[in-house]
Amino acid sequence: MPALTACLACRALKAKCRRGDMSETCLRCDRLGIECESIPRRLGRRLGSKNRPKTNDASTSDAIQRPSTNVGAVPTPKSPPYTHPRPVTHHHHHYHQHEGNPHHSHTPRTSTPSAGPSFSNMLNVLAKVANDMPPNPLPSSSTRSPEDSTHPFDRRKFLEMYRHASRTLDPDPFMGLVVLEQGLDQLFEEDGGETAILPGEEIVYLRVDQPRRDVAPEYDLLTINLLSETEIEDLLEVYWTRCNPIIRLLDPSIHTVHYLRSTSAILFTAILQVAAQCLPVSRHSSSLVSRLDTHIDMLYEEVTKRGLQSIEICQALLMHTTYMRASKQHQTWQYVAQAIAMALELRLEVNSTTLSLMNDSIHAHIPPERKKRNIERCWLCINEWDKRLAFIRGRRPILRDSPMTSPTTLRTWYMEPNTIECDVMTCATVDFRDTLTNIQRAIQKRMTEIPSVRFEDHLSEIDGSLEAWRSEWFDKLSPADQKRMEHDRRAGRFVLLMIPYEHRLSTEGMRGLARDECLIAALDVCKNVIPIFGGALPGMGMQDITAARLYLTGYTALCALRIMDSSPRDDDRQSLDVDLFHLSILSALATKLCHLNVHPNTALIASVLGRRLLYACRKVLATTMSTANGLSASDFHSDTPSPDGPILYGGNRDNGGVMGGGGGVIEGNGSGSGSGGGSLSFTPHDVDLNFDFSHVIGDLFPFFDNDFASTYVP
């Protein structure tokens, strides 16, 4: 029960003091191991209250309360000379002070060098507290001036008093008093303005979550005459009509030419560089791509070297990664990770209405709601890239799920005011990546618990989850977005189907339903992407041929070859004609890749993948023909294929329309070994020699090299 008289420790914190008697130690002091002291309660009237006047005579009361002062001293007012006023007692004053500025009461002041430092980091907070200390060296509750002191400071007596306590100030006990004397000397020195910000110290006091922009005359494309105004206008039109529906980062009402040149040179250059790559190949467009490549490389070095950051630089990094050229494919994750770190540094995930973006004069022409949606759109795209690369590598995403990326928010965000046309695609893609990640984790967890996976259950789980996503989002997308997302959905389905079997192809192969479904899924992706690479699919163009799509297609085709080569040759269902049909599809795809009519930034990747794929098709063909026992040359062209073979004549096994371009970055070289049945079957040496693209690209990781294969615990 609470004590009648609280101990000093509990009384200081206004906490309940629980003990039975004053002689006992209370529960709180006993738990914390501190001394429990008590002072007996004083009963009765306060001393002097009997003779206190009861009238309201101001002069009498003032005379009694006024302390005695020396002659000639200035009377001290009743209130302390330095007090911290409480906001609740000054509403009226605050209203009149800011009556002329209606936005002052709810909009913080922008931090600019002329307005003084903004107190965000801890060093700046301490500097503010030190500068706000009262000038009077006496306590704020004291009513005496320094001249009224009747007890002069006795230095010798002070040092003698604290001689023993000062032993801990230095490792040498006898030097502790010297340390105390030095501190005493510094304490009584005159203040020379040591707290003033000296030249060169401004960087220490800067806000870490404020933008540091990449804007300079030597960075601007027009200032250095790298491009003409006409070329910039044409490239911007190409970007808004062809590229932005795929990248989905920018708002046309915000990102005007004046805004881009005033906020970020690297974003302005990235927009034009991406647009130039989407032009038909010609001498003029190749010259534009070459000039812009050189300039954006210089800007990226400056951004990295000087530690520049802004939401526009984040957008530029993601945009450049989408159309990353062949010589920089090994930096894909570096660009995305840098954008994630920069977004976290700018606190985009904490508050979408940051101080700098809401009050910077550069953004004055933008409505607040559009500013907010611009930040949220960038954060959604960053989350999509994070989940995209995590899905490739089988790892956990770096960013945690937040209310902004929850399904509830995504279902309504694209319908809010001030949206742009591609916002619904952004929401659908983020939800799709989250669906893939959840399925992948569930499969990998089950692989650690159950040695063998029943394929029927595996197939049902994948198709059920993907069909639920498709039924919710597919009808809300535009026809072009439907083609892009359908390709992503089918390619993602194939990846998920192969997770339990990819590592075992070289030793166990695939049999029965698992082999048929996975092979059909792979060939379905490959045959539907051929019209895109040939430029024969309406609504799809060069902008849809990204490095991401090329790697995904190359990996899918190589997986199909491995499935075909690792299958047992004594299976009656295997037919030479069926294999020839499938190999013809893959070789046609390889030919399209080798002769892809795009700029060298992308054509090099396609050529490398196409040549490796065509060589692999020929090796599988040689293996297949060598195992066809007793078949003559005329038998190789039978007009009646086996009805049991998984043949694709154009029909799709799962729902959906024509596949289109778009999307997911899949980094993987598809390398691995097969266990074919003939003398020319794949060996580990052949696979390492012919399927490894790292000598050209540098960063094509094995697709299923995941972190959850043996150690994943949810």
Written account of the structure:
48% of the residues lie in helices and 0% in strands. α17 packs antiparallel against α18 (455-473) and α20 runs parallel beside α22. The relative contact order is 0.07. It has 714 residues and is mainly α. The chain starts with 7 loop residues before the first helix and ends in a 24-residue tail after the last helix. The chain has helices at 8-13, 27-32, 58-65, 91-97, 122-131, 155-161, 176-187, 229-247, 257-263, 265-277, 283-306, 311-322, 332-345, 355-359, 368-393, 407-413, 423-449, 455-473, 479-498, 512-534, 547-566, 576-594, 600-626, 684-690. Among the domains are: 1-39; 217-382, no CATH class; 478-630 and 641-714, no CATH class. It is built from 24 helices and no strands. InterPro entries: prtT, XnlR_reg_dom, Zn2-C6_fun-type_DNA-bd_sf, Zn2Cys6_DnaBD.
| Proportion in β-strands | under 5%
How many strand units? 0
Helix content: 40-55%
Which residues form runs of ≥5 with pLDDT under 50?
57-119, 138-147, 629-714
Main sheet, how many strands, which sense, barrel? Answer: none
